[in-house]
Design goal:
EC number: 4.1.1.23
InterPro entries: Aldolase_TIM, OMPdecase, OMPdecase_AS, OMPdecase_bac, OMPdeCOase_dom, RibuloseP-bd_barrel
Helix content: 40-55%
Pfam families: OMPdecase
Protein name: Orotidine 5'-phosphate decarboxylase
Strand content: 15-25%
Number of strands: 8
CATH superfamily: Aldolase class I
CATH topology: TIM Barrel
GO cellular component, one term: cytosol
Bound molecules: orotidine-5'-monophosphate
Length: about 230
């Protein structure tokens, strides 16, 4: 069975990222390329990972006018990635345009929307004039995302159980803010362990620093995969 682990390749160069990925096989984990690596290494690096057989989540969190986001999604899909994301706060017209832009492809990537970043807590939302608790905002944005026909959302594992009830089992929940017991929370606030996330119904966990900054990354990956297979 393919892994439910997505490793965040937050490295500053293609060379550093390749040093890390050469230890991995595609069945060990899916790989996420975000802003840091994409800006440094570009689309060629993404194509290289895809050619090596990895399922790649291109995490560029598109958030712009519908026409721009639709075109960006098309360009991203041409790289052969497995998953793409946009910001739900871009609104329904933007999400609909994004979905339609890739709908006709033979093998479209999964398209998901970021709800409330896992680094955000209620106090930070309040400063954005959002008076709701994080879960209420996540729930609202997940409903909007689902109504636009997207495949799922990025949220915190803390919201997973209620979201699965709300959106149904097929709607994908992808959760960063995952920390194995004993690891630092860093800048994440809404966190859970891999095992707890899986028990709450999460489909894919995103883990970066606890793996990429570990002295024994393969052991951490193995332990997380065991937890996710429970
Ligand atoms: O879209 C994302 O991937 C994302 C959304 C979110 O709400 N929180 C979040 O941490 N992420 C990403 O998930 C990864 C988490 O990395 P670590 O905190 O190092 O495990 C980073 O690459 C973030 O950019």
């Amino acid at each position: 069975m393919s892994s439910r682990l997505i490793i965040a390749l937050d490295f500053a160069s293609a060379e550093l990222a390749l040093n890390f990925t050469q230890q991995l096989a595609p069945q060990d984990a899916k790989l996420k390329v975000g802003f840091e690596l994409f800006v440094a290494a570009g689309p060629d690096f993404v194509r290289k990972l895809v050619d090596q057989g990895f399922e790649v989540f291109l995490d560029l969190k598109f958030h712009d006018i519908p026409n721009t986001v639709a075109a960006a999604c098309q360009s991203a899909a041409k790289l052969g990635v497995w998953m793409l994301n946009v910001h739900a706060l871009g609104g329904d017209k933007m999400m609909l345009a994004a979905r339609e832009s890739i709908a006709g492809l033979v093998k479209p990537p999964k398209l998901i929307a970021v709800t409330v970043l896992t680094s955000m807590d209620q106090a930070q939302l309040a400063k954005l004039n959002i008076s709701q608790a994080p879960f209420e905002q996540v729930s609202h944005l997940a409903a909007l995302t689902q109504a636009c026909g997207l495949d799922g959302v990025v949220c915190s594992a803390q919201e997973a159980q209620q979201l699965k009830q709300q959106c149904g089992g097929e709607f994908l929940l992808v959760t960063p803010g995952i920390r194995p017991l004993g690891s630092q929370s860093d800048d994440q606030t809404r966190i859970l362990t891999p095992l707890a996330a899986r028990q709450l119904g999460v489909d894919y966990v995103v883990v970066g620093r606890p793996i990429t900054q570990s002295k024994t990354p393969l052991a951490v990956i193995k332990a997380i995969n065991q937890d996710l297979a429970e």
